[in-house]
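> example.struct
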């Protein structure tokens, strides 16, 4: 079952793939002095329509078990250079929306960092296939509209299990809707449309492949639904704290996946 963003389901820049990639990053990156640790962030889970959410979750899991996850597992057998190129391209294609959210969050250093990365990787990095910026010491960070709303002080709201998009909360769901409406690269160019299609397909598969270790682990627990729901809530709380911190460094929150008290 897809946890949510990482990703967009229909595009990498929507939340389902985004969230999947976020969780994958949480489970794999080494902590640094500037990073927000999920274990240090208080988070809550408000799930007033849990029976309904569990029903949608069951549908989402069937779709994932029989369609997306098998493709993602096959993708992991492809050469590393191919997977790296796809990942870099997808990340770069999403930078304009990261930039918009950096500005909306009042993070000038982050916005300059993102703009510089996008310009360098799109040109020297051949449309982002090569992450030249990271090689040059310009780290990447994530930002989305759900995080922006959180930085503005908007609360989580109730848990929502959305068909195909997975676990979320009302604040992040609203952020997904806004993400669909915002198209910083425009849609009047056939080239951009083609790149967007490649980004959509590549982002979904790459994001799901990154999340496989996390979801495979959670599926071994007695209640996959609550375990995944709590990891999402934990990650998003740390992600908002990360946005408030405003560091231009790579500050992916280090999520442990530990369930919240009472679950």
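> example.seq
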């Amino acid at each position: 079952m897809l946890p949510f963003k990482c990703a967009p389901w229909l595009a990498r820049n929507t939340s389902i793939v985004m969230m999947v990639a976020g969780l994958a990053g949480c489970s794999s990156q080494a902590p640094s002095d500037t990073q927000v640790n999920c274990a240090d962030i208080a988070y809550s889970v408000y799930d007033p329509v849990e029976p309904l959410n569990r029903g949608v979750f069951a549908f989402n899991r069937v779709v994932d078990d029989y369609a997306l996850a098998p493709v993602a597992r096959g993708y992991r057998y492809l050469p590393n250079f191919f997977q790296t190129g796809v990942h870099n391209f997808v990340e770069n294609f999403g930078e304009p929306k990261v930039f918009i959210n950096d500005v909306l969050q009042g993070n000038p250093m982050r916005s300059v960092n993102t703009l510089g990365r996008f310009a360098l990787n799109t040109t020297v990095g051949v449309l982002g296939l090569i992450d030249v910026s990271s090689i040059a010491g310009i780290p990447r960070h994530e930002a989305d509209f759900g995080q922006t709303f959180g930085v503005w002080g908007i609360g989580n709201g109730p848990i929502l299990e959305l068909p195909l998009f997975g676990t979320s909360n009302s604040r992040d769901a609203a952020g997904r809707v806004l993400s669909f409406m915002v198209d910083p690269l425009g849609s009047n160019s056939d080239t951009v449309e083609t790149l967007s299609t490649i980004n959509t397909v590549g982002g979904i598969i790459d994001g799901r492949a990154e999340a496989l270790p996390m979801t495979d682990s959670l599926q071994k627990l007695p209640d996959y639904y609550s375990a995944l729901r709590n990891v999402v809530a934990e990650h998003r709380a740390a992600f908002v704290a990360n946005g408030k911190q405003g560091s231009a460094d790579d500050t992916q929150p280090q999520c442990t996946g530990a369930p919240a008290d009472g679950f």
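> remarks
The chain has one domain: 43-245.
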